Amino acid sequence: MRNPREELSSYTAEMSDPVSPEIEALLKEDRSFAPSEEFCRNAAVNDPDIYAKAAKDPERFWENFAKELEWIQPWSTVLEWNPPNAKWFIGGKLNISANCLDRHVRTWRRNKAAFIWEGEPGDRRTLTYFDLYRQVCQFANVLKSLGVKKGDRVALYMPLVPELAIAMLACARVGAVHSVVFGGFSAESLSDRINDATATVLVTADGGYRRGAIVPLKQVADEALEKTPSIKHVVVVKRGFGDIPVHIKEGRDHWYHRLMQDAPYDCPAEVMDAEDMLYILYTSGTTGKPKGIVHTTGGYLVGCYATTKWVFDLKEDDVYWCTADIGWVTGHSYVVYGPLANGATVVMYEGAPDWPRKDRLWEIVERHGVTVFYTAPTAIRAFMKWGTEWPAKHDLSSIRLMGSVGEPINPEAWIWYHLHIGGGRCPIVDTWWQTETGAIMITPLPGITRTKPGSATHAFPGISTEILTDKGDAVAVGGGLLAVTKPWPSMLRGIYGDPDRYVTQYWSRWGREIYFTGDGAKKDDEGYYWLLGRVDDVLNVAGHRIGTMEVESALVDHPKVAEAAVVGRTHEIKGQALAAFVTVKEGITPSEALADELKRHVAQKIGAIARPDDIIFSADLPKTRSGKIMRRLLRDIAEGKALGDTTTLADPAVVAKLKEQYESSEG
Ligand code: PRX
Fold first, then answer.
1. Where does residue 175 fall: left (phi above 0), alpha (psi -120 to 50 degrees), or beta otherwise?
2. Is residue 22 packed enough to be buried (19+ CB in 10 Å), middle (13-18) or exposed (0-12)?
């Protein structure tokens, strides 16, 4: 069967007419699941009128959440909207680390577990709110002793260890801007990000553990540091058990534990304006260079706090586990800021889900009595493939609510998750959002919403979304482009160092007041949203966002490559896989070995997540008469589909040859 989402996403990408009846039929999902009466009764929010109330006065709605937090000075105005620039909680002063820590430490939560952490090799640590508070204060003092001041940028390149969260909160405490770089990125990706943000300090680790192997982060960082003149100091967390070789450059590099030894526990939180920058997080876009998405303090905190509270229905005794790496936005908002602002107990696990066995996650759920579990469809599809015997070995009855994020979830995966992880009793919240939105935007509310497998359902109260045609007409029922039509507190405030791109990328499609998400979506006749994937040149591989242009740039950087075009194709587990069409330079003969070399080259340039699955050599790439590469055709070839109209091609024979070649390479 064809994949309807893929069908529609390539369809909307070409920006033509409404969705065909065929696609409509394929997308029809009749099953729906209402939360149990008991769940509704006890839910943080269970009044369906909340949507109407919030829509009537969104500013008041958000303000009420803001009032539950701690402000050094209250705001005078909730929102100032000069499209496309928004300011929230104007005049408000606060510190986000104080909201995540000090606020709880003053109550009985002082001794509540903040993080329950497991390392892949099996080591475990629990940090109470008081532990976390003290270590954050200490590290904040360390940062100050290294000369870090309010507004300075600090890069973090770490495995998934508590010190990563400690470093983020310590930055926030002294008013420094953190820029977390996922530990799977290459030296070049790291140095690019450090240089774009002109970070002065890098916090890293000797390494981390992944599938029993060591990821030598400091070694990779050393390579990056050869090209980062702004970095004055490097702090190295000792994660390994002495088995990870580390080079310490005198004067520049410092061991974390040494600096912490003498650091005082007392560190007052810097007074931050609601609109002071909190962090930069780089994400892939439609150009070769990742964009530094900027988030500020007040609105971001309010967005994360509110959505964590309502979407995950947090209770005081919940044990909450979001499996995301902190290197992505999901980890920022739903491992660190959202749950800590709510005073929750958060589980963190360093390693791979199938190490040492395929029940590692279920073992952790059972051991710690996880009650709220949040993961990605790509993981769920892998669990499905591994078989039900792995979760069946464990008592998962503590789970009461489950979430999904990062990519569209196919109904089969949804149902499997519901039955085999949730025991058929737990609501599922399929949450749609982006690095740019900062917090969840479209989601069920578990005590209110009747869910449909594969649908993210409705916009969170106070959030205004629409499906628009390319011309900007609202689509009441049917497919189109997903837009956000009103500003929201946790929205990005810009692209670091590139104000023009902020406007052109997000606020130019339908004028300056409407945010373009880059996603295609459909609204069904009950008003439910169905996300259909990106309509631009951004791919979503195993829940990771990858720009086709980035991979193309990495490929043409190889001395043997003349030209490259990268497209996504459907992948059973990863959602999408990367297919790269490559033409080689004169005198070079394509071969298996060269294909492997190119895959390695991309992994080395960007990181393993960007390694293409397929390399297809071609004498030529299909181009329009004006010289534009016809990606739609390449997508069709990679999907093994019948080719559509090729009349605009300069040389139709190129495509026929390519298709034949691709099919024969697949065997
Ligand atoms: O295409 C959408 C997809 O992930 C993109 C955002 O990626 P990123 O900024 O890395 O953030 C991922 C985690 C929030 C979106 O443009 N996406 C995210 N969540 C969903 C989704 N697609 C469908 N359903 C979702 N629940």
1. left
2. exposed
Atom of ligand 1 nearest to the CA of 531: 23
**Cβ–ligand 1 contact at 284 (below 6 Å):** no
Residues 6+ apart with CB under 8 A from 215: 159, 183, 184, 207, 208, 209
pLDDT of residue 392: 98
Indicate the pairing of strand 428-431 with strand 401-405.
parallel
SS3 78: strand
Question: Are the C-beta atoms of residues 558 and 598 closer than 8 Å to each other?
Answer: yes
Alpha-carbon distance of 404 to 438, in angstroms, equals: 16
For 122: left if phi > 0, alpha if psi spans -120 to 50, otherwise beta; the answer is left
9 lines ligand 1 (CB under 6 A): no
Residue 40 identity (one-letter amino acid):
C
Among 295, 528, 545, 548, the mutation site with the greatest number of ligand 1 atoms within 8 A of its Cβ is 545
- CB 325 near ligand 1, within 6 Å: no
For tokens 């080079």, name the residue. Answer: 247
Residue 588 burial (CB count, 10 A): 14
- What is each CA distance from 391 to 262, 318, 326, 347, 396, in whole angstroms? 45, 21, 25, 18, 8
Q: Percentages helix, strand, coil for the chain, rounded to the nearest 5?
A: 35, 25, 40
State the Cα–Cα distance between residues 645 and 630, nearest whole angstrom: 11
Q: What is the pLDDT of residue 647?
A: 64
- Taking the centre of ligand 1 as the mean of its atom positions, its distance from the CA of residue 89, in whole angstroms, is 27
C-beta of residue 89 within 8 angstroms of C-beta of residue 298: yes
Cβ proximity of 442 and 433 under 8 Å: yes
- Amino acid present at 223: E
Pick the residue whose CA is nearest to atom 24 on ligand 1.
408
Rg, Å, the chain Cα set: 24
Gap from CA of 181 to ligand 1 centroid (Å): 18
Inter-residue contact 179 to 279 (CB < 8 Å): yes
245-267: per-residue pLDDT in tens? 999 999 999 999 999 999 999 99
Q: How far apart are CA 464 and CA 114, in angstroms?
A: 33
Q: Is 410 in the pocket of ligand 1 (CB under 6 A)?
A: no
CA-based torsion, 268, 314, 88, 440: positive or negative:
positive
Distance CA 82, CA 85 (A): 5
Chain-centroid distance, C-alpha 298: 20
Low-confidence stretches of the chain (pLDDT beneath 70) = 1-28, 642-650, 665-667
Whole-angstrom distance, CA of residue 595 vs CA of residue 358: 31
408 lines ligand 1 (CB under 6 A): yes
Separation of alpha carbons 287 and 567, rounded Å: 14
What pLDDT, on the 0 to 100 scale, is given for residue 658?
Answer: 80
* 227 Cα–ligand 1 center, Å: 32
DSSP letters, 88-104, are EEET-EE-HHIIIIIHH
> Contact 339/314 with Cβ under 8 angstroms?
yes
Query: How much distance in Å is there from the Cα of 575 to the middle of ligand 1?
Result: 12
User: Helices marked H in 98-209 — which ranges?
Assistant: 103-105, 129-145, 162-174, 187-197
